[in-house]
Amino acid sequence: MNRSLLGAIVAALAVTTATSVVAQGTVRRTAPAAPVDRSIIPPPTAAPAFKVPAYTVDTLSNGARLVVVERRALPIVTVSIHFEAGTNALGASQASASFLSSMTREGTTDRTADQLANDLAILGTNIGIGVGTESGTAGFSTLVRDVPRAMDLMMDMMLHSTYPAAALERLRVQAISSYDRAQDNVVTVASQVGPGLVYGDQPYGHVVNADELKSVSREDVAHLAEQVFVPGNATVYVVGDMTRLQARAAMERAFKAWPEHGAKVDFQYPPAPALPATTVYVVDMPNKPQSYLYLTRAVAPAFGPEMAQIDMANYVLGGALQSRLSANIREAHGYSYGFNSRISWVKGPGPFVAAGSVTREKTDSALIEAMKEIRGMTGARPVTPEELQSAKNALTLSLPVRLQSDAGVLSVVSRVVDEKLPRNWWSDYIAKVNATTAGDVANTASQYLDPNHMVLLVVGDGAKILAPLKAAGLGPVVQLDKAGHRIP
Known about the structure:
Layout: H1 3-23, E1 56-59, E2 65-70, E3 76-83, H2 87-90, H3 94-103, H4 113-123, E4 128-131, E5 136-143, H5 147-160, H6 165-182, H7 186-199, H8 210-215, H9 218-228, E6 234-240, H10 244-254, E7 279-284, E8 290-298, H11 307-318, H12 324-332, E9 340-343, E10 351-359, H13 363-380, H14 385-396, H15 406-418, H16 425-435, H17 438-448, E11 455-460, H18 462-472, E12 477-480
Parallel strand pairs: 2-6, 7-11, 7-12
Antiparallel strand pairs: 1-2, 3-5, 3-6, 4-5, 8-10, 8-11, 9-10
């Protein structure tokens, strides 16, 4: 049938149908909508409530904990194993951990690297395994019907990887090449030097260097996996379309060849060393058009009684685009494209860092302004009601969004379970945030963001910035090399 004839038939049918509907009196006319006054801003709706999803906690036969959160809307399951062990607690090399994740894809006793890649491609998922400074993880997301096959692959990679020496050498070449290239970047150099100035020889002061990357053996990587992947250190999270009983049965089947073994890790982080009076440290990187400012000190361990107040102080100071540091250094003066602050919440006294790249000719001016804002937080420039409310909104009203995905639910629940916090920890945190006053922020900043005892690290062109920094009078100026060693 040609197209013109087909079009004529369709048009005729449309006319016939329309005539029939009209004849039957079924045509309905919609009343015109009321006009909308575009000059009136609609009132905000009520803030969504944040409620931690219900979860169950059981102990599996091999000693691992099982946490299940049922989410039945989609036939998808996220499985994530969290291990209470990392390189800091084990006294292991962070360089070994940096290779472990990639090497679990290089083949097992039963699968070659190509077979692993093919099995993952057929399954349509990705399995991530890694070890950090404080914990290890292994996990995936997949359709509920594919959980047994994904668990088989993950356990094979986690427990039976061969860590071939040839693969390590290939990865080592790549890692050392990346490390060497990064030594020409002011941001990288600051992030490598800064922690040692705060923590010294403590775990948080150590950063992987080239010598460690060169010295790691395949035995180091395999031994780290044996130490971390211990059932007694493990909490298994199952989030998605599985009941408590289904999840337990699936995990028991998957773990039948993973018996209790190894020692449970227990490690207490020491308090951070006391800092001397605020000192300016300068690392010379000639001809750099920008300097990188890295202001840092130790704060407190995560989940302490003042965590909410510290978060509030940091948000007002530099936790958002329109925070004080950004509004001053970026917007008002144009010294930087971006300057912010952050707090790394870890098991020990984590670091506070205020940092950003600034134009070389204004290095001293930017540092003066940054310190002015930090001092202002201690009460010299009280937090305004608008700043206080903005911080409260940001820290609390953003939480319900996390519950939209399995990954977000996992992050909410695991924070409570991993850290052995009370089940009402989140509601207590929100209440503390909302109860924080301007006076609380000033007191917290005075104690934890003490501008009189802070490391002021500047990485840039020493020939252009050293003299102005000395003249700025922010503290004694000490020159360092890229490894953080003092230059006489």
